[in-house]
Design goal:
The complex is a heterodimer of chains A (110) and B (118). Chain A has 110 residues and is mostly beta strands. Helices cover 0% and strands 44% of the residues of chain A. Chain A contains no helices and 9 strands. Chain A is globular, with a radius of gyration of 13 Å. The N and C termini of chain A lie far apart (35 Å). Chain B is mainly beta and 118 residues long. Helices cover 0% and strands 52% of the residues of chain B. Chain B is built from no helices and 11 strands. Chain B has strands at residues 3-7, 10-12, 18-25, 34-39, 45-51, 58-60, 68-73, 78-83, 92-99, 105-108, 112-116. In chain B, strands 2, 4, 5, 6, 9, 10 and 11 form a 7-stranded mixed β-sheet that branches. In chain B, strands 1-3-8-7 form a 4-stranded antiparallel β-sheet, with no helix packed on it. Classes of the chains: A mainly beta (110), B mainly beta (118). The A-B interface holds A 1, 3, 34, 36, 38, 40, 45-48, 50-52, 55, 57, 87, 89, 91, 93, 96-104 and B 35, 37, 44-47, 50, 52, 57-63, 95, 100, 102-106, 108-111.
């Protein structure tokens, strides 16, 4: 159960697009289509942004999208807005009813 | 509206035990899997344990296996985490999370803080 690998930080200007990667192994990200993404603002509980690799819960803007290729999942945020500045975490099912999170990525909107 | 309220956190000495509770409302509790996720101060999220709707499937992170026990009481709409042999590295904010119909944690509580220190 090693943590999934995410970049520690990414940044972009308002209106631009950014992509956050999440790299695991064939035992987690690559083995299942159960990758989810969470947004966390300081002092707040996480919020589900993407589930099942690319599905958006109701209420999440379509500026947020997810994808997966092999052992790497990605979250893309297009049309960056100031309120998107937050920490983002990926999470994957890892078999035998276990799950694993990524280390988290701090998104800065310049 | 999904509401999850954790309780039971506090300051505890290394080696001692603590039991966390999560009271759920706003949804049909026994239809959903539930999980505990923790976050050490200034650190990232760590999945701790999960339990299926009927307690038929249970999983633990390697870091807590053998020390923590997850359970649920569907009649009381409650989730529990029994934590034994606590260590300093268990210090964290512990969140209760509701798994969605598909995957992903679609509901979160505000967390209960556990501090393990002598």
């Amino acid at each position: 159960q090693s943590a999934l690998t995410q970049p520690r930080s990414v940044s972009g200007s308002p209106g631009q697009s950014v992509t956050i990667s999440c790299t695991g192994t064939s035992s987690d990200v690559g083995g299942y289509n159960y990758v989810s993404w969470y947004q966390q603002h300081p002092g707040k509980a996480p919020k589900l942004m993407i589930y099942d690799v690319s599905k958006r819960p109701s209420g999440v803007p379509d500026r947020f999208s997810g994808s997966k290729s092999g052992n790497t999942a990605s979250l893309t945020i297009s049309g960056l807005q100031a309120e998107d500045e937050a920490d983002y975490y990926c999470c994957s099912y890892a078999g035998s009813y276990t799950f694993v999170f990524g280390g988290g990525t701090k998104l800065t909107v310049l | 509206e999904v509401q999850l309220v954790e309780s039971g956190g506090g300051l505890v000495q290394p080696g001692r035990s603590l039991r966390l509770s999560c009271a759920a409302s706003g949804f049909t509790f026994d239809d959903y899997a539930m999980h505990w996720v923790r976050q050490a101060p200034g650190k990232g999220l760590e999945w701790v344990s999960g339990i299926s709707w009927n307690s038929g499937s249970i999983g633990y992170a390697d870091s807590v296996k053998g020390r923590f026990t997850i359970s649920r009481d569907n009649a009381k709409n409650s989730l529990y985490l029994q934590m034994n042999s606590l260590r300093a590295e268990d210090t964290a904010l512990y969140y209760c999370a509701k798994e969605g119909t598909d995957s992903g944690y679609e509901g979160w509580g505000q967390g209960t803080l556990v501090t393990v220190s002598s």
